[in-house]
Amino acid sequence: MAVRACGLIIYRRLQPAPSSKVTDSIEYLLLQTSYGTHHWTPPKGHVDPGEDDLQTAFRETQEEAGLQASQLTLIEGYKKELHYPVRGKPKTVVYWLAEMKDCNTEIKLSEEHQAFQWLKLEDACRFAEYDDMQATLKEVHQFLCSRE
């Protein structure tokens, strides 16, 4: 059976400079794992028994980044499933999109992560080494741009 994990792609909007496009002010939250290859990823984790996928995404975000559901706005109309093998077993990760209500809210990492960064799209794609995560971030950005 496939391992199932769920998470949130979290973004914030900074005050754009008068000359810049609104989408240039978007930054994405990535966390650096404190285990393995120390890869960068949005907050996510395994579904616990009795939990639905969205509950898992919010619980993992609270555990890994210290963010409460009340500090985020879930963005309607975006949900992405990624499928890839981990140690020879299939894994499914479901992501939703959420915006920080206050872009200055403090991030509080758990011991699962050693660092976090708020990154513009180009940098976020560089930090997220995996092709499917890079493609997802670009897709999210396109989705947000199309809503402006």
Automatic annotation (TrEMBL):
InterPro entries, A to Z: NUDIX_hydrolase-like_dom_sf (IPR015797), NUDIX_hydrolase_CS (IPR020084), NUDIX_hydrolase_dom (IPR000086), Nudix_hydrolase_domain (IPR051325), Tetra_PHTase (IPR003565)
EC number: 3.6.1.17
GO terms classed as biological process: AMP biosynthetic process; ATP biosynthetic process
GO molecular function list: bis(5'-nucleosyl)-tetraphosphatase (asymmetrical) activity; nucleotide binding
UniProt keyword terms in alphabetical order: Hydrolase, Nucleotide-binding
Required co-factors: a divalent metal cation
Pfam family, one: NUDIX
Superkingdom of the organism of origin: Eukaryota
Keyword GTP-binding among UniProt keywords: no
Chemical reaction(s) catalysed: a 5'-end CoA-ribonucleoside in mRNA + H2O = a 5'-end phospho-adenosine-phospho-ribonucleoside in mRNA + (R)-4'-phosphopantetheine + 2 H(+); P(1),P(4)-bis(5'-guanosyl) tetraphosphate + H2O = GMP + GTP + 2 H(+); a 5'-end FAD-phospho-ribonucleoside in mRNA + H2O = a 5'-end phospho-adenosine-phospho-ribonucleoside in mRNA + FMN + 2 H(+)
Tagged with keyword RNA-binding: no
Nudix hydrolase domain boundaries: 1-141
Family named by the database record: Belongs to the Nudix hydrolase family.
Function: Catalyzes the asymmetric hydrolysis of diadenosine 5',5'''-P1,P4-tetraphosphate (Ap4A) to yield AMP and ATP. Exhibits decapping activity towards FAD-capped RNAs and dpCoA-capped RNAs in vitro.
Name this polypeptide is given: Bis(5'-nucleosyl)-tetraphosphatase [asymmetrical]
Provenance organism: Promerops cafer (Cape sugarbird)
